[in-house]
Amino acid sequence: MSEKYKVRDEEKIYFITFAVVQWVDVFTRCEYKDLVIDSLRFCQREKGLEIYAWCIMSNHLHLALGTAGILPLPDIIRDFKKYTSVTLVRAIAANPQESRKDWMLEIFKRTAETSNKHQKYQFWQNQYHPIELTDNIKQQRCLHYIHHNPVVAGMVSEPEQYVYSSAIDYAGGKGLLEIKFME
């Protein structure tokens, strides 16, 4: 990983993006997004992950994260990516309604063949480039960017209309994950 993109201060909040290899649109089905939500909940409960903002798009995931100090943030991210990679590939393979199954699994398999880190399938791109949100201005820009992704993509007209995002929490509602609010 580049020296520029590292988690240096465990007490800070970081903007992170995970993208599916070759930008495959996996998260068009709710059951796959729900697996990601369940994994994030587990990381919150068991590993001390603090989520300030999040949004699951069709082929990537944006997060503003911190840690309560139980585990270092890079370890939580590593474990999350490893677990969700296996779980999502299995869910795709086992889904009888998944018309894109063979195509997606072939992409994940071919991508793994070019990697020395992955054995059978590679789901996520390797990098996640944590960007430290050092002040309120950067935090507010990050919130706006994360929450407006579904609007820019034409999925909804207002950020809080998108279920798989923390925008509803910031609008005063109750979303799918526990959120630690930015000041």
TrEMBL record:
Domain Transposase IS200-like: start-end pairs: 10-149
A GO MF label: transposase activity
Protein name, UniProt field: Transposase
Domain of life, source organism: Bacteria
Organism this protein belongs to: Adhaeribacter rhizoryzae
BP GO annotations: DNA transposition
Pfam families: Y1_Tnp (PF01797)
Matching InterPro entries: Transposase_17 (IPR002686), Transposase_17_sf (IPR036515)
SMART domains named among the record's database cross-references: Y1_Tnp
